[in-house]
Amino acid sequence: MNNLIGILGGMGPGATVDAMQKLINNTPANKDQDHIPTIAVSIPDIPDIPDIPDRTQCILNHGASPLDKMVQYLKILENAGAECIIIPCNTAHFWFDELKKRTHVEMISIIDTTCQLIKQQHLHAVGLLATTATCKAKIYQDNLSALGIACQIPDDTAQQAVMESIYAYKAGRIADAHRLLTPVRDRLLDAGVEKLILGCTELPLILQQDMASAPEHYIDATDALIKKTVEWYFAHSPRHPHHQGTPHHPIAA
Q1: Lowest-pLDDT range, 69-78, 86-95, 205-214, 237-246?
Q2: Residue of 58, 89, 115, 151 marked catalytic
Q3: What's the pLDDT score for residue 164?
Q4: Which of 130, 196, 251, 253 is the most buried (most CB within 10 A)?
Q5: pTM above the 0.85 mark?
Q6: d(CA 219, CA 224)
Q7: 110-120 vs 139-146: helix axis angle to the nearest 10?
């Protein structure tokens, strides 16, 4: 299948669905057949293929590495015919270079894409809401520093609240997740950052209503990744020069 997009998901499942919905929303389409062919792997836990170990625990506490499992799922997508693979999980990009070495197909980085978007918007100082592992590994900070962009992260106490918010959302406690996250968000905005990177794919789900009412405050990394993926698809699609559809309006920006 030409230009099949593969999504290495399950980190978490809700974020995978959000990425797929954004792919639909951002695709110029007038009918079903205009949409981008996609295959997703979202396997939290099935027999003979154990779940992907927690990325944060691995990076911070030397827990089990998720690399081998991610490679295994990557091969499922590759063998199914995927020609471009994306991973809607920021922390998993700690292993992005290693994953790229294990596949023969194109991969698009959520980190590189988001940082380039920030550069294109001529921002000079941003805040980062992400997992503790993403913050500690400086996955965003190092990339942004190379572009001359300052990146502020929460202090340790606030960062703990971010993690509690993320895990609350994963557990289905959506109101608790929002309650824990908003004070941290407000503190960073009050500190003078121009925008906040939502650098964990659960965060746009937690802040969905806030983003709708004040989109100018946020950089949604998932949305940036999906828009770059749509761009890649049509740049490599024979339909591209003649395709005249209009994008669906995103449900969550």
Answers
A1: 237-246
A2: 89
A3: 97
A4: 130
A5: yes
A6: 8
A7: 40
